[in-house]
Amino acid sequence: MIIQVNKTLIQKHKIMKKIQFNFKTILLLLALFTFLVPSSFAQDNEPNWPSGRNKGIAKENYALLIDAVNNEQYEEAIEPLNWILENAPNLHADVYVKAVKLYDGLAKKAKEDGRDSEVKVNQEKIAEMYQMRIKNGLAEDMSDIYHRFGLDAYFYWKDDPAKIDTLYHHYAKTYELDRDHFSRSEVIYYADAAGKEYQQELITLDKMTEVYKELKNYVDERIAKEETQEEKDKWKTYVLDKIDELELIYFPKDCNRIAELFGEKLKANPNDTLLVQRVVKLMGDNGCTKEPLFLEAMQAFYKLTPTNAIAGTIGQLHLQNGDTDQALTWIEKSLVDAEEAEKQKAASTVLMLSKLAYKNESNYPKARSLAYKAAEMGGGSVAADAYTFIGDLYMMSYKQCKGNDGISLRFAFLAAYDMYVKGGNAAKIAKAKEQFPAKEDVFSDDKYNVGQSVSVGCWINTTTTLRTRD
To answer: Which among 130, 48, 122 has a CA at the least distance from the CA of 96?
Structure first.
């Protein structure tokens, strides 16, 4: 008897549940009918209901989809959505609006729960919904769908090599469809996608250059059209500067391109420390130290951060350019409160300048002046080398600096001897002494006496003491 009562109760429960389900379905369909008929869908916005028995099923699933998504019951919405996508994919644009909301909700929930792999899956579904909507032509303004999808797709696909080609062509198509409403974000996303496309060798350097040139021209046009300075600044600061950064990432880093990107900026903002440091690093890292812009950047860097090291580098750059006077000026700046080792290093550089002045210019006075400067700056072994070098210059000049007689012909050797003594070079002291006048020649000439002060002519233009080799 008890068993019979229980069976009866179970049957009644099943019947009531079925009635409740049917009643809910009826309410949903009535809601859908109310939603469709009055205003939401005019004749040209009527859903594309499938024919036959699927029409009723489609209406029921559409109602269930709307109800579940509106109530944020996203898991429950998947089954009716999948039926529609499989059996009536061109039903209505609203299906895809709801689908995007559905998968976005699931992605957010997965992110909150730390289920990162599911976040990616749901993002892919969002992308798929946009693409299906575009494929089925379900939009009054198709360009608007392209714009909206592009703003999401970048974050879904920018780090996925397999999707870069799709991403790049999406932005290219969006730009073609609605150039006038291409947003600041889309410009940056398009430029980045083009760069990634080039990295994967899917477009040529010429094509990437063409895209960047077009986008820069577009930004210039937008800046000109904007009515407020605030908006103009946003296009310039947020977009043009970002494009420059992307160019440095994706384009071959040649010196001309770096100079092209930063030359005018540096001239306009020589006190921008970050800009100056960036130009210095970029040009230094890419072998552009011989470029005029690098010297300009280094001099701006010194004004902002005056250190001996920077001054020394600037001196070397001037030396590299053959500007000895400027090189010396900066080298001297580099020695303010410098350690002894730094002074020796700088003095060696100046001595090198001295030797270059002789070798490259045959400029004896300049070579001697720089050698004296090196001796003054460095002392020690550098000074010894500097005085020895001056002695060499005198030795080489004896013919052009000879006097009017056999004794004065030897005066240059006497001056060289003095320099070798200062340099402590015993071997060269001996060689210079071998060229002194003979004792008998001095005694036989009434004009000269051993030990007297004599003047050495021409460029040497100094005095020395008359001595003999024996």
So the answer is: 130
